[in-house]
Amino acid sequence: MAAALLALPCASGAATAQEVLAAHRAATGQTAKSGSLALRYAYSGQGLAGTVTTRFDTASGAFVTDSELGPITVANGFDGRMPWIRDISGACTPQQGGDRVRLAINEAYRLANLWWRPDRGGARIEALGRETLDGRALEHLAVTPRGGLRFDAWFDAGSGLLARIAERQMFFDTRTSYDDYVRQGGAQVAGRVVIDGGTGESGLATMRLLDVSSSPRRPRTAYAMPADPPQGVTLADGASAATVPFRLLNNHIYVEANVNGHGPYTFIVDTGGHTILSSRVVAEAGLDAQGASPSAGAGEKTTTSGYAKVREIALGPVRMHDQTAITMDIYDPAVEGIKVDGMVGFELLRRLALRIDYQHNTLTFSRFDAFDAKDAGTAIPFMFYDHLPQVEGRVGDIPALFDIDTGSRSEVDLTSPFVAAHRLRERFPGAITAMTGWGVGGPSMSEVVRLPSLSIGPVNITAPVAALSGAKAGSFSDANFDGNIGSGLLKRFVTSFDYSRQRMYLKPIVPPPVDAGRFDRSGMWLNAADEGFVVAHVSPGGPAEAAGIAVGDRLLTLDARAVRADDLSATRALLRTRADGERIALGMRRGTEHRSVVLVLRERL
């Protein structure tokens, strides 16, 4: 890893922002005339190799970046108004949620060198002094473009050339280094670019300049999102709609799926996720997985994923064709109590409307042109934050932005920046400390409270259970959204999604599920084990602690009945729904010692 920047004392003759940028302009030079420039780089990183080409307008910075990296082909762009992405499935999606617009403004600002203008392109720029990196003197500027986010830029004090950019993207602190400059068409261009995505050594990528080309100025539409509708999904027998049954376990939606004719496998349906295949599926279906990219989720850890081309993923009559899937093992069977071999999410919903009937445990997929919203309930518009639907709502009387995530078991998880900004721990005293989830990034610890109310668009929910995150890493540390709404809350409704029109719909289920608004009354988190369950966490001051239960203990029987891994979801539900004060007989083992424990359930919220 590169050495940390060391700030030196500012001398009275420290360079001003104007002087730093004047030196940068003089050193960089300019192309002969305004128009369009294309920079093509060879890319190597995360186990992938290929080319990355950025075409941009030299006056405005509007851009399109195309990446062809082995098994994946992706793109992103910005026409000055709307950022967009083309994902690994080939679907193009507008990006207006989270930090997407502001980061696109930042990128356009840098590409067009708008900081050279007399008004600095409307940006706020502050000179932070001279610093050193590995003995190299650098001038440090903090730059906040109009409508963008702050980023930090370091310029070589000797040459004046740009050396580094640091920028917060989603919940990652990214760094991009520039060196080996070469002169192309009258301008100095970085011959080598090293990108640190904020996930450690495994996330590093190096780009080396292949060529530079220029052309006359192109219209703004050249940088706009392509209008091609996404392809690659069919319904059996040419139907306009098809229904698939599901199991709701641990507030997760599970369906049976076949991959290239192999299976059936158990897949989770997750609006917060992508198309993912486990190592077991990859092996049994004879797929070729390539790459090793870092991935992160609700926990604070990262894991590694690759990519594989797949001919068909079939959920009964719903079939995805010729897709690129992410390859990784998403769930430890100990956490779910069942083996989970894959996921379908954004890529499927980007192609078909979905109606989730939590009351009757059915998923109805339909072509967008056949989706009938008349009986779907209240319509709520959303924006895309990367692949996630993001809606406006409120926490009590506080405006909030929520990601909608059927792959979350919670009612709502509030992010650590939102919790801190609104002093929610002080506003809602009496929180209990608990393990509230376990995702790709590992376990999530939170303080759990009962809110007076929460709204999703105009739909109000009274007294939901909320987890106040204290995460310092992972998605719940992201300041670009305020809360993550999961199936724990959505299961009160028939929930529908129409990604083509960017609308979701909520229709209340009457009566609501018996565990709506209920939180665990046992004070412990259980995972499956080779024998019974293992206690993974005990809440301080909770019923389990009062009963003498400790982390690592094995739960073998409940009400005199032996428990097995596939009882895990039902057991967790039981510990939410049994009455306050009810006594439950548990057969426990600590090491080799067997003992009987009486657990007295307690409502703690």
Write a structural description.
- The protein has 605 residues and is mainly beta.
- The protein has four domains: 13-223, Lipoprotein localisation LolA/LolB/LppX (outer membrane lipoprotein receptor (LolB), chain A), CATH 2.50.20.10; 233-369, Acid Proteases (Cathepsin D, subunit A, domain 1), CATH 2.40.70; 383-506, Cathepsin D, subunit A, domain 1 (Beta Barrel), CATH 2.40.70.10; 524-600, Roll (Pdz3 Domain), CATH 2.30.42.10.
- The protein contains ten helices and 47 strands.
- The strands form six sheets. A 14-stranded antiparallel β-sheet has the order 1-8-9-10-11-12-15-16-2-3-4-5-6-7. Strands 30, 31, 32, 33, 34, 35, 36, 37, 38 and 39 form a ten-stranded mixed β-sheet that branches.
Which properties best describe this structure?
outer membrane lipoprotein receptor (LolB), chain A; Cathepsin D, subunit A, domain 1; 4 domains; 14-stranded antiparallel beta sheet; 10-stranded mixed beta sheet; globular
- Sheet-strand content, in percent, reads over 45%
Q: What is the correct CATH architecture of the largest domain?
A: Clam
Low-confidence stretches: 1-12, 295-302
**Averaging pLDDT over every residue, what do you get?**
93
Structural class: mainly beta
Number of structural units classed as domains: 4
Task: Write down the overall geometry.
Answer: globular
CATH class group of the largest domain: Mainly Beta
How far do the termini sit from each other? Answer: 46 Å
Percentage of residues in helical conformation:
10-25%
Number of helices: 10
Name the strands of the widest sheet in spatial order: 1-8-9-10-11-12-15-16-2-3-4-5-6-7
Q: CATH homologous superfamily of the largest domain?
A: Lipoprotein localisation LolA/LolB/LppX
Sheet having the most strands: 14 strands, antiparallel
Number of strands: 47
